[in-house]
Design brief:
By secondary structure, the chain is mostly helical. It has 33 helices and no strands. It has helices at about 1-30, 30-45, 50-60, 65-80, 85-95, 100-110, 115-130, 135-145, 150-165, 165-180, 185-195, 200-215, 220-230, 235-250, 255-265, 270-280, 285-300, 305-315, 320-335, 335-350, 355-370, 370-385, 390-400, 405-420, 425-435, 440-450, 455-470, 475-485, 490-505, 510-520, 525-540, 540-555, 560-565. Helix 17 (about 285-300) runs antiparallel to helix 18 and helix 25 (about 425-435) packs antiparallel against helix 26. About 50% of the residues are buried.
Length: about 575
């Protein structure tokens, strides 16, 4: 009997050791090895709540959320006071975006352990994901009261403040998290995002770079830094970062989309289209990718493809006001003004506060010749966004076309105040000064436009015309026309203006040659016919002169008055 008992004792001891080993491995191992150990522990003791909870955590780490929930359910069934099982099941529900169940579980964990900082932090994150940043902040605040060194709770509270657009508090919390853990890449990334929201792009980039230094595979930090570089118009650096994101995750549709935007800004339209197409391939419901590919096609002059893409964007998202507005721009470019106006009107119905839609409808009305409605639409755009420089500029153009030079001057000046780098507004104000007879101010504005944009052909042309009509600095006028024509060699009006300078200089053969060239491009250009007629008359070709002058007057009855006004007859 003694021997038998001795042997039995050994067997019991061996079995107990095996069970202990399985339970220990279930806790200490990870992945499939831990799951196997937990399986064994549960087989040996089906009432082991901790083994179910541990196996659930391993399933959760593998992304097998439903299996994880099933194990947490079993753990709670066995031990209804197993706090961590509620907390971990809450995490699983949160991964499934079932925020109400997640919050219920975190709340139960807190009920069981009122000082459970992790459960407060997790519930705070669930509230934030549900769109309730105030409750999120309250929970994260409680978490850091329980554990003042809880870096994650500070960082997540910073994220909740960021959702409320309280960027200074967000930055303070991210900074506190970094003070606690200087290797906390997530906190650097979050603080960088808050700095970017404050348009402090250099600080944002520094923080994103630090996050990447800590974790060279931190995809989100590369993505965010790419956006910050794009905000700074540093498109090559942005492209490099988005390319790194794509290398880390070739199925990241948004990275292709943003890289496409950067290529479009660089006018590398084919590359932009390729990236937008890849984003659409990865996500066929990506309305913004269709919209922006449409923009790239429009920039290439392929308006039909552009319209097709805008239509796809609208089919995916019928409330996409921007896609309607862009389709309206494409229709206007095709000369279909009524369709354009209808598209912008739909965009306005969807979003009455869209200054872009009001602005673009104003342009369409102006293109159609409805100046009153154009002024009304531009004014509405300005009411919505009082800093909308382009709306002031275009309203100024309408006022100028109506002869209301004082209002035009006021709008162009406001556009310049809002955007001191607007060469277009300086050019337009220079023309108003010209029409008011203020030569010096007109020259100054054209000079400024050219300083800002040295390849601005129309500004050179306008400065040429100002000098020519004033009969001042004609060699400089000729030089300006030369530059304008080099930059835009097929613009008949620029060539016509150079013909007028030659006529002023009495270089009659040159004048006739210029007018011939202009008329080859635009056969019914009345000023070129009349100027050529005057040049022929001065050369003694009376019959040729009379034919050209008669043809000019037949096209535009007041053409002679224009030349007389400038002292040329």
């Amino acid at each position: 009997m003694f021997k038998y008992l001795a042997i039995l004792s050994f067997l019991l001891t061996g079995s107990g050791a095996a069970l202990a080993d399985a339970r220990q491995d279930c806790v200490q191992l990870s992945g499939d090895a831990a799951i196997s150990a937990c399986d064994e522990a549960i087989r040996q003791n089906p009432g082991d709540a901790n083994a179910y909870a541990n196996r659930g955590s391993e399933y959760q780490n593998k992304g097998e959320t439903d299996r994880a929930i099933a194990d947490f359910n079993k753990a709670i069934e066995i031990d209804p006071r197993l706090t961590r099982a509620y907390n971990n099941r809450g995490n699983s529900y949160q991964r499934k975006n079932d925020f109400d169940r997640a919050i219920a579980d975190f709340t139960k964990a807190i009920e069981l352990n009122p000082n459970y900082a992790l459960a407060y932090a997790n519930r705070g994150t669930a509230y934030q994901d549900k769109g309730d940043p105030d409750r999120a902040i309250a929970d994260h605040t409680r978490a850091v009261e329980i554990d003042p060194n809880y870096a994650r709770a500070y960082a997540n509270r910073g994220s909740a403040y960021q959702d409320k657009r309280d960027f200074d508090r967000a930055i303070a919390d991210y900074t506190k998290a970094i003070d606690i853990n200087q290797k906390y890449a997530y906190a650097y990334n979050g603080r960088g995002a808050a700095y970017r929201d404050k348009r402090d792009f250099d600080r944002a980039i520094a923080d994103f770079s630090k996050a990447i230094e800590i974790d060279p595979k931190y995809l989100r930090a590369y993505y965010n830094r790419g956006n910050a570089y794009q905000d700074k118009n540093e498109y090559d650096r942005a492209i490099a970062d988005f390319s790194q994101v794509i290398e880390l995750d070739p199925k990241y549709a948004s990275a292709y989309f943003n890289r496409g935007n950067a290529y479009q800004e660089k006018r590398e339209l084919d590359r932009a289209i390729a990236d937008f197409s890849k984003a659409i391939e990865l996500n066929p419901k990506y309305a913004n990718a269709f919209n922006n590919r449409g923009n790239a096609y429009a920039d290439k002059g392929d308006l039909d493809r552009a319209i097709a893409d805008y239509t796809s964007a609208i089919e995916i998202d019928p409330k996409n006001a921007l896609a309607y507005s862009n389709r309206g721009i494409a229709y206007r470019s095709k000369g279909e003004f009524d369709r354009a106006i209808a598209e912008h009107t739909t965009a306005i119905a969807i979003n009455p506060r869209s200054e872009i839609a009001w602005y673009n409808r104003g342009i369409a009305h102006r293109s159609k010749g409805d100046t009153e409605q154009a002024v009304s639409d531009f004014s509405k755009a300005i009411e919505i966004n009082p800093r909308y420089a382009q709306a002031y500029n275009n309203r100024g153009n309408v006022y100028a076309s109506k002869g209301d030079l004082d209002r035009a001057m006021s709008d162009f000046s406001k556009a310049i105040e809002l955007d001191p780098r607007s060469a277009l507004a300086y050019n337009n104000r220079g023309t108003v000064y010209r029409d008011k007879g203020d030569f010096d101010r007109s020259i100054a504005d054209y000079n400024k436009a050219i300083e800002i944009s040295p390849r601005y052909a129309n500004a050179y042309n306008n400065r040429c015309w100002l000098r020519a009509t004033a009969n001042r600095d004609l060699p400089l006028a000729l030089a300006d026309c030369d530059v304008a024509i080099r930059l835009a060699s097929t613009d008949a009006s620029y060539i016509d203006n150079r013909g007028f300078v030659y006529l002023r200089l009495n270089r009659l053969d040159d004048a006739i040659a210029e007018y011939d060239a202009a008329l080859k491009l635009t056969p019914r250009l009345a000023t070129s016919l009349y100027g050529r007629g005057l040049s022929k008359r001065r050369k003694g070709d009376q019959s040729g002169a009379e034919a050209d002058i008669a043809a000019a007057k037949a096209i535009r009855g007041d053409v002679a008055d224009q030349f007389t006004r400038y002292g040329v007859n």
